[in-house]
Specification:
10 strands, 4-stranded antiparallel sheet, Immunoglobulin-like, 150 residues, mainly beta, 2 helices
């Protein structure tokens, strides 16, 4: 299954962030934003399904949304950081705000059976491949001969 992330604005936004905050040196903070919009992902193919794992440490659990539309999976979340009146941040390297990632799916999935679970800062999404996308044998019939399968 071919999966591709896409966001037509991420490159221009990344350049702006790097210029504004000086992350052009390839620091961890710069890579986090520029590589994937703050949502790193692993993809594992199993028999009949694809499993995606997104790192969302510190995400507000109630803000996490997973949706599918045709062959696009969208994951969105928010991470906030509250400070008291007497607190003033001295260093802020942890990225906060809203994050989203879109993944284009090469095969149709069974959207009714998609499962998602958020545990220990990791969102796991299980995408069952739709029956019509699974490989199957076709019987070849020939008059007067035994049936063959391909």
């Amino acid at each position: 299954m071919l999966l591709t992330s896409f966001d037509p604005f991420v490159t221009d936004f990344d350049r702006l962030v790097q210029r504004t905050f000086g992350w052009a040196d390839g620091s961890a903070a710069g890579r986090s934003v520029s590589h994937h919009g703050g949502l790193p992902m692993d993809v594992v193919r199993r028999d009949g399904e694809v499993v995606l794992k997104f790192d969302l440490p510190g995400a507000d659990a109630d803000s996490i949304e997973v949706s599918t539309d045709r062959r696009v999976l969208t994951v969105a979340a928010k991470r906030t950081q509250e400070y008291g009146e007497q607190e003033r941040p001295v260093v802020r390297e942890r990225i906060t705000g809203s994050f989203a990632r879109k993944v284009r799916l090469a095969e149709p999935i069974d959207a009714e059976k998609v499962q998602a679970q958020y545990e220990n800062g990791v969102l796991t999404v299980v995408l069952p491949v739709a029956e019509q996308a699974k490989a199957h044998k076709i019987e070849i019939k020939r008059p007067g001969a035994p049936e063959l399968t391909a």
